[in-house]
Design goal:
Number of strands: 0
Order of helices and strands: HH
Helix content: 40-55%
Number of helices: 2
Distance between the termini: 96 Å
Structural class: mainly alpha
Shape: elongated
Strand content: under 5%
Number of domains: 2
Radius of gyration: 34 Å
């Protein structure tokens, strides 16, 4: 392959010129072509659809974790902790919204 900077013939398979060190390949290959408007629109729609599905799955997973934790806490309060433990955590006389004076 011939170097476009110095004109040196380089062996096949080399990426850099042996004389000047210039890259032998073009950063913009000739076989690339710009996308049409329809292809750009399809690519954009696919990205939006993928992002929307990703957000939906993330929301559903977080919601599921909160529901699972809520069920675990409910079961702990109902069946594991004794009733006087709940009274110890929130005594009825120290309520902020108490109407008695």
């Amino acid at each position: 392959m011939k170097c476009i900077r110095c004109g040196t013939d380089n062996p096949a398979g080399k990426n850099v010129c042996v004389k000047c060190g210039n890259f032998l390949y073009s950063p913009n290959p000739q076989n690339r072509h710009p996308l049409t408007a329809a292809q750009k629109s399809a690519r954009r729609a696919a990205r939006v659809k993928g992002a929307t599905l990703g957000c939906l799955w993330t929301f559903l997973i977080v919601l599921g974790v909160f529901v699972f934790l809520g069920v675990i806490i409910f079961l702990l309060i109902q069946f594991v902790f004794p009733p006087d433990f709940i009274d110890f955590l929130a005594p009825a006389t120290s309520s902020v919204f108490s109407t008695t004076t």
